[in-house]
Amino acid sequence: MAGEKHVTQHALRQRPVPMRDGQVVGYVHSTESFGAVDGPGIRFVVFVQGCNMRCQFCHNPDTWKKNVGTQMTSDEILKMALPYRQFWGKKGGITLSGGEILVQIEFAIELFTKCKKLGINTCLDTCGQPFTRREPFFSKFKQLMEVTDILLVDIKHINSDEHRKLTGYRNENILDMCQYLSDIGKPVWIRHVLIPQRTDYDNYLAQLGDYIKTLKNVKKVEVLPYHTLGVPKYHEMGIKYALEGIEPPTPDRVKNAERLLHVADYRGYLED
Ligand code: SF4
Fold this sequence. Notes:
One of its GO terms (cellular component) is cytoplasm. Residues 37-272 form the Radical SAM core domain. The protein is of the alpha/beta class. It has a single domain, classed as TIM Barrel, CATH 3.20.20. It has helices at residues 2-12, 74-81, 105-117, 137-146, 160-167, 172-183, 202-213, 231-237, 251-260; strands spanning 19-20, 23-35, 43-48, 70-73, 93-97, 121-126, 150-154, 188-194, 218-225. Strands 1, 2, 3, 4, 5, 6, 7, 8 and 9 form a nine-stranded mixed β-sheet that branches. Mean pLDDT is 94; it is low at 1-12.
């Protein structure tokens, strides 16, 4: 029974889930009514607060802090989103993004469960950092996958040491999440931010391209060129910006990354 004891002790360490009116409360940073780049079709996007990672290139450092922002229940989100349903068509729907949505996994489960009952397409935009196969997280993750149609997964760096330098965390559990999603056949779009002096090296890009080829569930691969639009937020918040002086990649380097990541081979999203 040692295993059971372990699970119980783990469960006791769980943080309390905030509730209101019998519903989980989510901490929301902002919403977007007509998201066109956050999953298939036109989508209502909910950006939540809270992220453990500290990506050097993050353009939303204002989403890092947990337990702040607008407190909203899933019913309140649906009330905001449903007036836009006529624009979603067959592909569109609701996306949960961040920050990192998996730090509020109970909120995601509740909202997406209601979405599926209403026939709404659900998309989860995640960096995967909170993922673990340990309990109580793993059971919750499985529950969430039952009501999630597609995931946008950011792989920040294929090399774990470099991943830690870039984000503060290693990537083994993130790649394990990718493996799990492949094993259960859950559709994903993989995204990778191309940053000169950080991720824009042919050997790493080729490694990442090879790795993605081992997954069986990838519908789309996107290279996102690093940009500096978030820099003023760092200055306003008094946080040192680690990529000061690094310019966005040239179009040639973007094309090179797209070639090494075999972007053209992933056309599954066009069939959805
Ligand atoms: S995972 Fe996303 S929200 Fe978190 S620090 Fe990185 S880029 Fe920012």
